[in-house]
Predict the 3D structure of the following.
Amino acid sequence: MPHSASAKKRHKQNLRNRERNRAAKSELKSQVRKVLTAIEAGDVAQASEALRTAAQKADKAARIKSRLSARLKAAAQGGAAKPAKTTAAKGRKTSAKQ
């Protein structure tokens, strides 16, 4: 337990922030789930709307936004719901040793 007044205040702030962060993280996961289920169902219009909502929740999480956008784009074009993963070795020519 904190002893000084500033440590007590900081502890209270940490507890409050932790609850806020948990709620935000849970909401973001729910929004991502809605986007993915709409994409899997083939409903591009609903997925697009859900993506807008998820993007508002995840403005700082650029990685999540770009991955969801890529999946929506693939679904809209009639392709696979999951875009191909890129690897560092992709495109490199390998020579067989003789």
